[in-house]
Amino acid sequence: MEKLIFVRKGLVHRVDKNFPWMYSHTQVPFGFPLDKEIVRIYFSTRDKMNRSVVTFIECRGDDPKEVTYIHNKIVLGLGKLGMHDESGAMPSCVVKREDEIYMYYTGWNIGGDVSYRTSIGLAISRDNGITFQRFSDGPILDRSIYDPCFSCQPFVLKIGSKWNMWYLSSTRWELHDNYPEPYYHVKYAVSDDGIHWERSGKVSLDYSDEIDAVGNPTILLEDEIYKMFYSYRKGYGYRTDPSKAYRIGYAESKDGMTFIPKNEILEIIGEREEWESIANAYPHVYNFNDRKYMLYNGNGFGKSGFGYAVLEKA
Q1: CA atoms of 147 and 135, how far apart (whole Å)
Q2: Distance from CA of residue 119 to its chain's centroid?
Q3: Local structure of 301: helix, strand or coil
Q4: Which 3 state secondary structure label does DSSP give 240?
Q5: How far apart are alpha carbons 81 and 213 in whole angstroms?
Q6: Could you give the CA distance from residue 93 to residue 109 in angstroms, rounded to a whole number?
Q7: Whole-number Å distance between alpha carbons of 217 and 308
Q8: Whose C-alpha in 40, 149, 165, 282 is 20 to 30 A from the C-alpha of 292?
Q9: Is the dihedral of CA 147, 152, 157, 162 positive or negative?
C-alpha cells in the first residue's frame, strides 16, 4: 500500500502573553481557506485563569509560516455563568453554509473529582467568520447513554443532504498514581440540518493496544473512501513520555462509519524541532490548491504552538 508521507515545515505560530485573554496556548488549529492565496487558521488560546477562547490568524496558503495578519480580538468567548462552556470554547470544525459559517466547538467546565467535563456547541457567523454568535446557550451534544463521561472535538462533513459528525466520546476515567485520566474513542452521529443530531452509539474508531484516547479527527472523502487523520495516545504517562504521547494516525472506511486504523502507512518526515520533541497532536488536514496540508500541535497540548506539514507529491 502506498505510504502517505508528510514533510515537516516547522512552527507557524505561538502565543506568548500577547493579551490578557491570549496569555498561553495556540491549540487545535483549523485551516479555513479564504481564497486561492490566503488561509485563515482558527485556534484556541487561554487567559491567565486557563480559560479558552477562539481567535485566528491569516497566512499565505502555500506557506502558512508566512503570517499576513494576526487578529487582536476574540471571535468566540466564554459562555455564560453556569453554562456548558463557561470555562472555555475551543474550535473543532468550521463549515461554510450558504452565506453563514458554522463553527462546531468544544465547550468545557472545570470538573470536581475529575479534571473537566466537555460537550459540543455550535456558533454561527454572518460576517464571513470575523465574529461568531452561539446558536444556543446549551450544547447541541452532551453526555448521554452513549457518551457517559463527555463528548467533544467534532468533525462535520455534509454529503448530499446528510450531515455527518464524528466526535470524541469518553466512556470512562481511570486513576493512575491517584490522578484521574480520561479514555475516549470516536463515535458517529447524523443530522438533517447540522443542528439536531441523532446518535446510536455507533463507534467509528475504537480503542486498541495503541489507542487509549483519540484527538481531533479530520475526515476527507476521496475516491469513495473516507480518510481519517487523527492523533492518539496511551492512557497515562503521555505528558512527558514520547512513547506514550500523542502521535498522528490514519484510518480508512468504505461506509464512513467504521474505520480501520492504518497508522503504518502515515509518516511525517523531517527534523523534529524542540517545540514538537514530545508530541504531535490535534491534526487538521485540508486541501489547498491541490495539495494536502496538515496543521498540528506539539508539546503541551498547544502550549508550544502549532506547525504544519505538506503531503509529499507522488
Answers
A1: 22
A2: 13
A3: helix
A4: coil
A5: 29
A6: 20
A7: 16
A8: 165
A9: positive
Local confidence pLDDT in tens for the 314 residues of the chain: 689 999 999 999 999 999 999 999 999 999 999 999 999 999 999 999 999 999 999 999 999 999 999 999 999 999 999 999 999 999 999 999 999 999 999 999 999 999 999 999 999 999 999 999 999 999 999 999 999 999 999 999 999 999 999 999 999 999 999 999 999 999 999 999 999 999 999 999 999 999 999 999 999 999 999 999 999 999 999 999 999 999 999 999 999 999 999 999 999 999 999 999 999 999 999 999 999 999 999 999 999 999 999 999 75
Label residue 1 exposed, middle or buried (CB < 10 Å: 0-12, 13-18, 19+).
exposed
Q: Which of 42, 159, 22 is nearest to 91 (CA)?
A: 42
pTM of the model: 0.96
For residue 182, the Cα-to-chain-centroid distance in whole angstroms is 17
Question: Cα(41)–Cα(12) distance, rounded to whole angstroms?
Answer: 10
Domains of the chain, first to last: 4-311 (2.115.10.20)
Backbone angles phi, psi at 187, to 5 degrees: -120, 175
DSSP-derived letter for residue 265 is: G
C-alpha cell at 227: 480518510
